[in-house]
Amino acid sequence: MDDNDPISQFFPDQEDVDLYAVLGVKQDANADDIKKAYRKLALKYHPDKHAGANEDAKADASLKFQQLGFAYAVLSDEKRRGRYDLTGKTDEGADFGPGEDGWETYFEQLFEEVTR
Amino acid sequence: MPTAIGIDLGTTRCCVGIWRNDRVEIIPNEEGNPFTPSYVSFTETEWLIGDAAMRKAARDPSNTVFNVKRLLGRAFSDPGIQADIAHVPYEVFEKDMKPHIRVRYRGNTKEFSPEEVFSLILTKMKEIAQSYLGSIVTSAVITVPAHFNLSQRQTTKDAGTMAGLKVLRVLSETSACAATYRVDRWNARDHNVLIFDLGGGSLSVSLVTAHESGVLDVQANAGDAHLGGEDFDDRLVQHFSAEFKRNHRVDLSGNHRALRRLRIACERAKRTLSSAMKTTVMVDGLYEGIDFETSLTRGSFEDLCDDLFRRTLDPIDSVLRDAKIHKSQVDEVILVGGSTRIPRIGRLVSEFFDGKELNRSMNTDEAVTCGAAIQAAILAGATSEKTQGVLLLDVAPVSLGIETTGGAMTPIIKRHSTVPTKKSQMFTTTSNNQPGVFVQVYEGVHAKAKDNNLVGRFVISGLSPAPRGVPRIEVTFDMDANDRLVVSATDKGSGKSQTISISSDVRGLSRKEMEAMSAEAEGYYREAAERKAAKKSLEAYASSLETAIVELQNALGRATLLMNAGKDISAEVYRHRQQAMEEAAETAMRKLSGSATSQQGERSGRRVSDEKYIRSWQLSPV
Questions:
Q1: Among A49, B52, B229, B515, whose Cα sits 20 to 30 Å from the Cα of A6?
Q2: In what order do the strands lie in the sheet with B47-49?
Q3: Per the CB < 8 Å rule, is A48 touching B420?
Q4: Domain B400-525+614-621 belongs to what topology?
Q5: What angle (nearest 5°) sits at the alpha carbon of residue B547, between those of residues B546 and B551?
Q6: Where is the region Disordered (chain B) (predicted)?
Q7: Would an 8 Å CB–CB cutoff place B422 in contact with chain A?
Q8: Residue B370 and residue A9: Cα distance in Å, rounded?
Q9: B229-308 with B400-525+614-621: one CATH topology?
């Protein structure tokens, strides 16, 4: 697995991770199915639901919830999901176009990057 | 199971509740009131909290502390704080860059931090619960406005800990309302709920999606830290003080006792106007025997506060924008908080939603406490069927990030991300052979880091020399459901890493940390500085040597001229010339040795005594 991809952070020591399997949905699942699956699993793994458990179980649930959140973040974002389907990459990728701060900041950043 | 209570810690009053027998019980204080004023009064013998303290406010204004919530977890330099200080009759001063309170207590001057005052109030709330329940209370969920940042939440938690409570969660007030709504009425379909909470001191607005699964998904929060019942009271007090001045040529400002009494009358009038159209504001002997009596209509009250009332709509706008939901998609608008009793507020909100009927079915005053009690039960491991399916997916109240090139704020965890969450981003150096990186953690939404709140900083040093842009430094933010943030940075090249846990007191670097950082920096700095200093010294010596040589050559030249001049020159003139040459040589030698010693002091290299150098260890996005 690519060490630079954020996926390695959430699934350490795992060779091959299928984010669809993490959420328990099929590859052709629609956005609504993904949302529903995430919420169902969140109800199961959210640390608040394991407040009374021992430390190991808590840590385990916490990791599971983070993996869940990560899989949801990738698959609920149309652009990221498309990229993941094509390349298996899960990072946010290069942003083309202005962010929240508008074009000026975008070009400033571009200038920074090019002239560095 | 430990006994866990929910506490609504309000600007003007507090309320405590507990989940028992499948419902929330609001616990009355010893005077039988469900609400305890957030007042602490210090006297010659004791401190009073709640109703007793509030009664002292008019008699002993400088030793009765209230509205402390507005000071909690903020910097003294905050312009908002300055405005608040102007409004309170007790003394607020600066200590460790934070506001503190000074009062007379038991014949001595005592200083309190806002969290210490809050811990007194929380202790009181705990005692109220304990005497009602007849058992020891160990833990609590405490609510805060949704717009409270990490520092404010941490400080609130510290106050709870000081009061001997295990703080299970510092919960946003509007999120608490969502939990109450969820348990109160189970609605088996997904719907968007907007919660509008206008209390005594602040306004919080949240958009929450309630799912049929039982999950409450907080989409966005917004608020106004300075908008609530107190501000409406202020308006009335200002208005009537001016009227009193016009009629009696007496300036009430500075007379805390008179202002306090006028404020109480104004607050009463404001409440009356929620049901009546007209009321009388009356204070006997307001100033040196002069009675004050005037009438106030609902219309003129609304006119006086019109701009304030309209401001309550701004957070609704920003919540809808952030959640990317159109106002027509909002299924329920829930009003909570005492100030939503003002009819004009309700009308404005309803008009905003194109005449939508508002949900006023929740208990305006108790909804927050109920939610806190429900969440407390869940976190304490309650096994009630009613709370079983409830899960509150709350969000990070502010963006969290680090400072990068040019002082920009690069958010790592964006505002409104569901917590717990963990995010990483790769960064690099900004200059060639940069020996380290200075990671500064900020919270806030501004594009410039310095406009945000600094919550922590650390240094990774000992990077292997490399051109700028080459080293790869991974920065990871890990935030749990309790808003506890752990920040770590790893230099992928050397494997060096640093981790810090952000807590309320990491506002700046302590002196000791500063010194340690400087010493570390000096190690890297010294070598370069020494080289530079040695070179400068050599240059200076060479230059003075050159000057000396030129001077000697001139003297030599004049001597040669004289020697070649012929026979008509007297012994006197030759002797004179020799003397001048000797003097020139002596001056040159003296200058040279002087120049050598003057350079001595700089050879060891300049000391790094400030952070300037480390500040240049900037990170840059990859």
A1: A49
A2: B47-49, B40-42, B64-65
A3: no
A4: Substrate Binding Domain Of DNAk; Chain A, domain 1 (2.60.34)
A5: 115
A6: 584-622
A7: yes
A8: 38
A9: no
Query: Does residue B42 surpass a pLDDT of 90?
Result: yes
Q: Which CATH superfamily is domain B4-227+312-393 in?
A: ATPase, nucleotide binding domain (3.30.420.40)
Q: Do A65 and B217 touch (CB under 8 A)?
A: no
Assess: ipTM above 0.90: no
Output the six-digit token pair for B161: 């800990």
Q: Looking at the partner chain, which of A39, A48, A70 has a beta carbon nearest the beta carbon of B378?
A: A48
pLDDT value at residue B409: 94
Does the beta-carbon distance from A46 to B391 stay under 8 Å?
A: yes
pLDDT of residue B546: 85
* Closest by CA position to B217, among listed B385, B392, B28: B392
Length of chain A: 116
Tell me the Ramachandran region of residue B433: left when phi exceeds 0, alpha when psi lies from -120 to 50, beta otherwise.
left
Q: Which two tokens stand for residue A57?
A: 């179980």
Burial class (CB in 10 A: 0-12, 13-18, 19+), B42: buried
Q: Within 13 A of A68's CA, how many CA atoms are on the CB side?
A: 25
Q: What is the spatial distance between Cα B170 and Cα B152, in angstroms, rounded to a whole number? A: 10
> Percent of chain B, pLDDT > 70?
91
Which CATH architecture best describes the domain B229-308? Answer: Alpha-Beta Complex (3.90)
In whole angstroms, what is the distance from residue B528 CA to residue B431 CA?
15
Instruction: Name the residue with higher pLDDT: B201 or A7.
Output: B201
The phi-psi region of residue B388 (left if phi > 0; otherwise alpha if psi is between -120 and 50; otherwise beta) is: alpha
